[in-house]
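Recall from the previous lesson that a structure prediction takes nothing but the amino acid sequence as input. Here we apply that procedure to Cucumber peeling cupredoxin from Ziziphus jujuba. The sequence below is the only information supplied.
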Amino acid sequence: MAKQMGLMGLGCFIFMMVALQINGASATTYVVGDSLGWTVPPNTSFYTEWSSSKTFHIGDKVLFNWTGNHNVAEVSSLAEYENCVNPGIVIGSPVTANLLENGSRFFICTVDDHCEAGQKVIITVGSPTNTSSTASPAPSPSSASSLSFGVIFTVLSSVVAYFFA
Ligand SMILES: [Cu+2]
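The prediction returns the following C-alpha cells.
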C-alpha cells in the first residue's frame, strides 16, 4: 500500500511540475515602448526597433500605457498601417492586447498626426511576414503542450497499470 501511495504521489508531482511549466512558458506581458510608453516617439523607427527587439509568443500580452491625448486602434493590414488608415474604432487606456495566434497585428494612434510621426507598432508572433529574417521559427506552444500532456498520460497510465496489476 505504501508503495502504491508513493507512486500515486509521484504521478501527481510530475503532473504539477508539467502544469507549472506550461503556465510559466506563456505569461510575458510587454509594455509597448518600455519606459517611454505609448506616445509620439523621438523618431519614426522607435516602435519598429522596440518590436524587433522582442520575441513574442502565443499567450503573451502587449500593454499600451499612456498619459495625455492618445489612443490605440488596430488596423487589419500592412497597407492600412503604412497609410495610417483610421479604422474608426479606438480603445481606452490602458489597452492590453492578447496574442492568441501566429501572425502580425498592426496598432496605431489615430490622434492628429501621431501615427505619421511614428506612433504605430507591428506585433508579430511566429515567423515575420514582412521581413526576410532567416531566424528559425520558435517551437509551437501547442505542440509543446501536446507533448507534455502525452508525457502525463504515459506516466499516469503506467501508475494506474501498476496499481491494478
Ligand atoms: Cu497619439
